[in-house]
Amino acid sequence: MDEKNRTAGWIVNRSAVLLIRSRPFLVGVGLAALCVILYVWGLGEAPFYSRGEPREATVVWEISTSGEWILPLRNGYIIPSKPPLFHWLGALFSLAGGGLSELTIRLPSALLATTGVLLTYAVGTAVWGTKAGLVAGIILATSFEWARAAVSARVDMTLTVCMVAAFMLFFALYHRGQVARWQALSLFALLGLATLAKGPVGALLPALTVGIFLVLRGDLRFLRQLHLVPGSVVFVLIAGSWYGLALWQGGYDFFAKQVLKENLLRFITPGTAGAGHEHGVSYLVSTFFLGMAPWSFFLPPCIGFLYRSRSQWREKRLLYFIVWILTVFGFYALSGSKRPVYLLPLYPAVALLLAVWWQELQRGTVALARPLSWPVHASGSLSVVFVSAVILLVLAQLLGYDALALIRSLLTAKQQHELPFFAAIVAAHGLAFWLWVAAATVSTVLLATSLKQQRWSQVFTALALFTCSTFLLVNQTLRRDVAKDRSFQSFMARITTQIGPGPLFFYQTFDSGALFYANRHIPFYEGFSPPPPGPCYLLLWEEQWSALAAKAISGIRVIETSEGTGPKGKQRLVLVFVPAGATITSAAPPPAKYETDEEDAP
User: Which of 85, 323, 510, 516 might form a disulfide with 196, Cβ 3.0–4.6 angstroms?
Assistant: First the structure.
């Protein structure tokens, strides 16, 4: 019996050890599944409708149709604004998926965003435990700006995750103390990939962070372990080889656009460069707060905790993440051009610091006696007010009240223009919004009661429930309806069937979505002198058609008008037939005016 008991005990103990060791892996699988639900579910169902997504999609289309992988020219002649890593991934996924689609072009962003969440979870688990890693992963996965970039066919998530991987690899190597040659070369390879994602900033920001951190630690000697010379060779081979080939193909035009305008001039003088997005530092603060809401409500007490524990930054391995955040934020604070997505690379570091603070709350090691308790409770109360206000606005709208009018004066002119459209979406998807109200109400009640009782695990669970349900509502309902209202997908499918291979031109107009869904190049009518002989078709905005119709040119007539209202929701496209012999003169600016690569407004 004793032998049997010892054997049974050994089996139980061994099983317990295996379960404990497998727990981080199983939690990671669950986190990955959450990301798939949030990012991949329904990813291809909304057509392209903004300016940014189809702009990048047309580059993927050029790669897939022309086989030009070095410098694919949009519409046959427009030099892309960004390096091609994202476009290469989109082309590869499209090749594997059997053809171009919204799903295959967006999928790199979704999978890379999931990778970033899992990297954050892995670092948090390795340093502070599985619970801290899970908290950090969920915070990151459900932050609004991160989730939005995850479902967008843009280069930003590709850049971000390559940089985040480099940030975290250095952290792991530094605290390990010994760096193998292949590990150092892997770090430089990640920097090269980050540069191929969006330009030199992909290598610059991690390099600045590492340099500042090592100076603060008084440990610049560690650079010797990074094998700088062979690492630089790897970096040049990965990033420099493409830049060299692209410069050889594109010449000065490539240099002026991708090197000068998109990097140097965008940083120094965005207005002069024509890049736009000139904002002050307060803009970065406000957009980051909104981009990480509702988790950002807890940033003030977290910052207070970090300040009070500043003597323990090294011991708790917090210094590197603080330097990481301040370096990225400081760099873009100095930049003339500012956009919310520029701050994406610091989101994982902020999520990790919030997770550390949250774990200290759960352990009771953060002092919550007065007067130190008020920042935590104030932040929690603000989150309750914020969540409750959103629920009440939607609930009132569902019940037939124009509750959105209450916030009209707080919104920009563009946002005010969107309010009737949002009200129509609520009315059209009543069941989905009622289900969301139910889930959000449960989370709010749990949030309020848990704050009062200082049950921080439940506070976190309540916020996670609210953020997940909200993003699912936005992605599965709002986003699809906005896309349906604005996209030119169905319009371009109809007209390409109607006109076949007939000559089609843009006239005083340019739209990347129309170009992508045309599945062909569309030159500018103004680019021909004299105009092309024979009948042809023009694509132009309703405003341009009104001006052209006023000239009463014989034989010109409208064939089709789009249902979609364009990226800004304000103009429809018109297909016009121009008979042979008709003469159309235009005092329009050069076509370059319409070849805009300006980013989408936030």
Answer: 85
Domain end position, chosen among 444, 469, 486: 486
- Compute how many other C-beta atoms are within 10 angstroms of the C-beta atom of residue 186: 17
Q: Is 524 helix (H, G, I), strand (E, B) or coil?
A: strand
| Complete edge-to-edge strand list for the sheet that includes strand 504-506 | 504-506, 536-541, 573-578, 557-561
Q: Are residues 376 and 345 in the same domain?
A: no
Residue 472 and residue 538 share a domain: no
Residue 69 resides in a domain: no
What's the distance, CA 406 to chain centroid? 30
Within a domain: 211: yes
pLDDT of residue 418: 65
How do residues 224-257 score in pLDDT, each as one tens digit?
999 999 999 999 999 999 999 999 999 999 998 8
Is residue 5 a part of any domain in this protein? no
Side chain identity at residue 564, one-letter code? G
* DSSP state string for 136-172: HHHHHHT-HHHHHHHTS-SSHHHHHHHHHHHHHHHHH
Residue 93, C-beta contacts closer than 8 angstroms, at least 6 positions apart: 104, 105, 107, 108
DSSP 71: S
User: Where does a domain end: 362, 384, 401?
Assistant: 362
DSSP state of 184: H
Residue 374 · residue 316 · CB < 8 Å:
no
Give pTM, 2 decimals. Answer: 0.91
Mean pLDDT of the 348-377 span = 77
The pLDDT assigned to 18 comes to: 43
Instruction: Report how far residue 212's alpha carbon sits from residue 321's, in angstroms, rounded to the nearest whole number.
Output: 12
Q: Is the pLDDT of residue 345 over 50?
A: yes
DSSP 295: G
Q: How many domains does the chain have?
A: 3
Question: In this predicted model, what pLDDT tens digit does every residue of 432-471 receive, in sequence order?
Answer: 999 999 999 999 999 999 888 888 889 999 999 999 999 9
Question: Do 138 and 31 fall into the same domain?
Answer: yes
Domain coverage including residue 256? 11-41+81-362
Residues 471 and 494 in one domain: no
Please tell me whether residues 584 and 497 are part of one structural domain: yes
Asked which of 136-145, 296-305, 587-596 is least confident by mean pLDDT, the reply is 587-596
* CA angle, residues 270, 292, 472, in degrees to nearest 5: 115
Tell whether omega for the bond before 530 is within 30 degrees of 0, i.e. cis. Answer: yes
Residue position matching structure tokens 């952290």: 171
3 state SS of 538: strand
* No. of helices (H) and no. of strands (E), the chain: 25, 4
Confidence of residue 99 (pLDDT cuts 50, 70, 90): very high
The rounded distance, in Å, linking the Cα atoms of 331 and 328 is 5
Q: Does residue 311 belong to any structural domain of this protein?
A: yes
Distance CA 379, CA 164 (A): 28
Contact 200, 331 (CB under 8 A): no
Same domain for 332 and 434?
no
Other CB atoms within a 10 A radius of the CB of residue 488 amount to 29
Residue 540 phi/psi, 5-degree rounding, is -155, 160
Same domain, 508 and 549: yes
> Is there a single domain that holds both residue 515 and residue 544?
yes
- Of 284, 286, 298, 291, nearest to 355 by C-alpha is 298
Residue of 291, 306, 286 lying closest to 358 (CA atoms): 306
Over residues 478-487, the pLDDT tens digits come to: 899 999 999 9
